[in-house]
Amino acid sequence: MPRTVWSGAISFGLVTVPIHVVSAWEDHSVRFHQVHLEDMSRVRVRKVCEIEDREVPNAEIGKGYQLTKEEIIPVLDEELREMPLPTAKAIEIEAFVPLESIDPIQIGDGYYLQPDGQVAAKPYTLLRKALERSSRVAIAKYAWSGRERLGLLRVRDNVIVLHAMHWADEIRDPAELKPDDVELTKDEIAEAEHLIDRLTRDDLEGEEFTDRYTQAVEALLEAKREHRAPPAVEEPKAPAKAPAKVVDLMAALQESVAKAKASRGGDATVHEMPKKKAATKKTTKNSPAKTAAKKATGSKETAAKKRAKKTSAPKKRSA
After folding, report:
1. Which candidate among 70, 103, 176, 312 keeps its CA 20 to 30 Å from the CA of 128?
2. pTM given for the model
3. How far apart are CA 17 and CA 122, in angstroms?
4. Cβ of 266: how many Cβ atoms within 10 Å?
5. Model confidence pLDDT, tens digit, residues 87-126
């Protein structure tokens, strides 16, 4: 059973739902300690007072806000807990919106909300069913770890989930990261859409969606524990150097579609490169030498046709 990280209630209008908050995810990463390589003893971080130059126990450690370089304002945990915030012990629902209206970049870690006893079962189920039938999510505010936060409530497998959210002013503007505008042909965009179609699937189940790095680290540790050589792994291919410019974007897209077809068992169709009527016009327009050559060739062909027509035409008989 996951441990409770916070206890309180969901405030839904005049309805109150007592809940426990538990983490909705587990960290399966392999953890390492810092050690002294000569004797493999642990290296620990000590909390030392810089004035007294001695290690300080947790009982003597508190919070302080650095106002200036010389002045620090002390803040007690009791003072933070007693702040008159309506969200200090409640998740206050402020509005209901379609999930599509929320930018995913605002959504953070998820937590399961567990009803606190049988008394909370009925209002908890009421809120869950109301969320399901409305096809909306709830936007709420709550206070954790000394600050007020924004959250999103939704339903997953009959359990209400709270997602931490970033405030709108916490999201950085990506405008300065955007590349300069480039021209793309309709054929290139269409082929990219074909590639998306080939890579589309209904779920994220499969071997390719496993943490291979953690598995490799675990295999390494098991081998070292048993004093044997670690398992051999296939050497990854060195990534090709990026060219200065894309020579043939369409060819790269079609090759990607072909690889997607092969990886999905041949259930995809590779689209042949369409004839570039518009692209040809665009190319000749940008290449004066080719345009002049084409005009000269066309003039010679036209003249030859006229001479042939004149030669083959029947002569008029004189009366």
Report:
1. 103
2. 0.62
3. 9
4. 8
5. 667 899 999 999 999 999 999 999 999 999 888 999 999 9
